[in-house]
Amino acid sequence: MLTRRSLLLASSAAAVLPGALAAPSARAQTPKDVLVFAKQIDDIISLDPHEAFEYTASEIAGNVYQKLVTTPNSNPSEIRGELAEKWAVSDGNKTFTFTLKDGPKFASGKPVTAEDVAFSLSRAVILNKSPAFIINQFGFTKDNVAERIRATDAKTLVLTTAEPTAPSFLLYCLSAAVGSVVEKAVVTANAKGDDLGNAWLKQNSAGSGSYMVRQWKASDNVMLDANPHAVEPPKMKRIIMRHVADPSAQLLGLQKGDFDIVRNLVADQIASVEKDRNFTAQYARKASLMYLSLNQKNPNLAKPEVRQAIKMAIDYAAIQKNIVPTTYAVHQAFLPDGLPGALTDKPFQKNVAEAKALLAKAGLADGFELSFDYFSGAPTSDIAQAVQANLAEIGIRLKMSPGEQRAVITKTRARTHDIAMVRWGSDYFDPNSNAEAFSINTENGDEARNKTLAWRASWLIPELSAKTLEAQKQTDAETRAQMYLDIQKEHQQTSPFVIMLQEIEVSVSRAAVKGFDMGPMNDRHSYTNITKA
Amino acid sequence: MRSDGELQAELLPPEAEPPAAPPPASGVARRARPSAAWLRLRGTLSTLASVPITLFGLAVVTFFIGRVVPIDPVLAIVGDRAPADVVERARLDLGLDQPLYVQFWRYLGQIFSGDLGRSVMTSNPVTQDIARFFPATFELATVAIIIAVLIGVPLGVWAATRQGKFVDQAVRLFCLAGHSLPVFVLGLLSLLLFYAKLGWVPGPGRQSIFFEGMVEERTGILTVDSLLAGDWGAFNDALYHLIQPAGVLAFFSLAYIARMTRAFMLAELRSEYVTTARAKGLSSARIVWRHAFGNIMVPLVTVLAMTYAGLLEGAVLTETIFSWPGLGQYLTVSLLNADMNAVLGATLAVGLIYVVLNLLADMLYRLLDPRVK
């Protein structure tokens, strides 16, 4: 099948050949106070921070809006006030009182007030778009926000959760892009009917972050201008993000000096610019995992020995080194490195003898056949072939079934796969985001209300689910992180998930460009300190 | 939508549609002969009548293909993380609980009220999206076809008059290269050479960042808009950006046009009337251009119209490599995301382009060939 990604791969492969000829003429052509990104930005659907959930839009929201709290990329588990000066917890972990800083101002010049914060959080709940569940999980509904999210004076905001809540859980969730604060007066002035300004905010902004949206043309470009009233004035007066779909074109533009930072180079291109002094490659671990889901509806995969054997058959190190040396790292637990509570143990290595012994113990010494669904693009198809070869060594024959990303997801949601290779990105910066997905499933029927990843693997785990919920509620941050470590250790050994790799985001800039701060989540990528020599 | 490589596989066979057979001179009592104008009008009307049928067929096929792809359309709308009740609500909103024919009926109703639905990917009405992406493609395709015709047709004629000679072989090689080199190789090589090495042309995109947002958008066609605004700088910039992608597309199309022109010309040059003309001592330029070329106009117009239509549906690879936000990219991205409203809408738009160009070609025959009534 002809997919855009395979075309891109083919075309980038074709560019490697002349890549050697391309003598980089790295002279700055972009204006001194304008920064130009080249990036695939056709994922943007909306720039409304209470609606957007896609990578690029989250990144923009992170630079255009501020949240009550945030986490610094230098120490991602530390919670720091962004708009909030301080906060206090009372009423048995149900009432959270935030006091706002003096100073933050919207692009209009007006100071950020508690009323704006209350309006923004309520707006996210009432609009109820894709990311709203991050806030809704604390018991907010459109009927109760008026009493549960209140500004008691210009500087004080009071949140009341439905149940006793771990402060770290609430604060991490509020640090997500959906917790962005918009200027109430501007948004309501641009509202149409009861859309709370949604149509307008899709392509405009009303925030207090470093930048403001100047224009967005779908699949073409996004332009941001510096917010003249920002507390921390950005160095670049304007940020331009150009949609350049083809990685080779991104690389050429970078070498030519038309782009300052390019965001979507593929592994071999990164390897070639790494050696070049004119360019700097920058790496950030992303909260995104690649894993195999072993459907427990398959009687063979339901045997614990078989699951363990598969985990031991795969050559993680070789896959990482040979296929995705710069863009993925080996990781084997459900919390990605960089998130609080992440387990970094890697207990599984390729061990054919032991894996075969386990299969024999399960009565499957002669092996068996399974179907294998995966996304046909790069690099997943190469990884899938490596997995196929690894499993063949222990007698498990995989029938390859490559498909479009969404087709693979559709299949796992219908639970009709045997093994599927899927990617999972965390929704928000809290262990619960992944824990809930990977280790909660209390009803295994087709009509289950909560169709988590564990459900999609038909893995019924009442006990582990209870433990996971308990960890979510634990109010002491240290204990909470420890509980997640314990859960992951158990999960690692028993689950039908073969977690293999964690994604690494790579951006390559001209050597003169410095200060692009990259974080584990897209909304943590900050442009504020970018400078150009 | 197709990739550029397939672009020409579907083109009509070289021969033009055979002119309508003359009415049999039977012995039946002669009726009053309808006037030529009436015949011409009737021909046009009957072609027009085929438009809705063609579009209906297109809608049926696209709709049902869209419903059998193994991707859940709800997934595109609410995402992978939505709770079960949200998924269910979206399913009901889409009417996916209804039988297929009911869904189709509803969709037809929508089309007739001019509503192609909303795109999931851009969250805009599909009509608005098409209005935004089509001008970019139109601009690119038009410049490409102009270049292709200006070079391809003379090249074909030249090769035909020198059949078997060096010129013919050189043109053949040139055309073969244009036709068989994949567009992404051609595009990247051209970027590497003309942009990265020589610096003759600007990089990917429709305009330089300095001009971004400077010209008021009226038609969406940048060169036209900048002219309307009287901004020569912006016009030059837009034109400058056009040259390379249009050149690549043109190279690809002119190969086909030149080959077809050559074949048509050869057939004509072998005709007896050419021998007669030669015997009468007419100059060879007059024979070639006035007589032979005049006679290949009808089939050539078909080839050109279909090549143009093929370009207008958007060349995905060229648009991808040159970051050209056109219809081809829009359709591909929508397709990969199971954004069915966008796919259906854009497919209908492409279908409409083909039908309209066919109609135009048809009318041109009537002008070019007095025998076609």
Explain what you see.
The complex is a heterodimer of chains A (533) and B (373). Chain A has 533 residues and is α+β, with helices and mostly antiparallel strands. Helix content of chain A is 33%, strand content 21%. Chain A has helices at 4-19, 55-64, 114-127, 133-136, 145-148, 167-174, 184-189, 198-201, 247-256, 267-274, 304-313, 316-322, 352-361, 380-393, 405-413, 431-439, 453-456, 462-473, 477-494, and strands at residues 34-39, 69-70, 80-81, 84-90, 95-100, 149-153, 156-160, 211-217, 221-226, 238-243, 261-262, 279-294, 328-330, 368-375, 396-403, 419-425, 497-510, 513-514, 531-532. In chain A, a hairpin with a 2-residue loop joins strand 6 (149-153) and strand 7. In chain A, helix 18 packs antiparallel against helix 19. Chain A is globular and about 70 Å long. Chain B folds into two domains: 50-112, no CATH class; 126-372, MetI-like (MetI-like fold, Orthogonal Bundle). Helices cover 69% and strands 0% of the residues of chain B. Chain B contains 14 helices and no strands. Chain B has helices spanning 36-68, 73-78, 84-94, 100-112, 126-161, 166-180, 183-197, 222-228, 232-269, 272-279, 284-312, 316-321, 327-336, 340-368. In chain B, helix 1 (36-68) runs antiparallel to helix 14, helix 5 (126-161) packs antiparallel against helix 6 (166-180) and helix 5 packs across helix 9 (232-269). At the A-B interface, helix 1, strand 8, strand 10, helix 9 and helix 15 of A face helix 2, helix 5, helix 7, helix 12 and helix 13 of B. Chain A: It is found in: Periplasm. Chain A: One of its GO terms (cellular component) is outer membrane-bounded periplasmic space. Chain A: It comes from Teichococcus wenyumeiae. Chain A: Belongs to the bacterial solute-binding protein 5 family. Chain A: Residues 78-445 form the Solute-binding protein family domain.
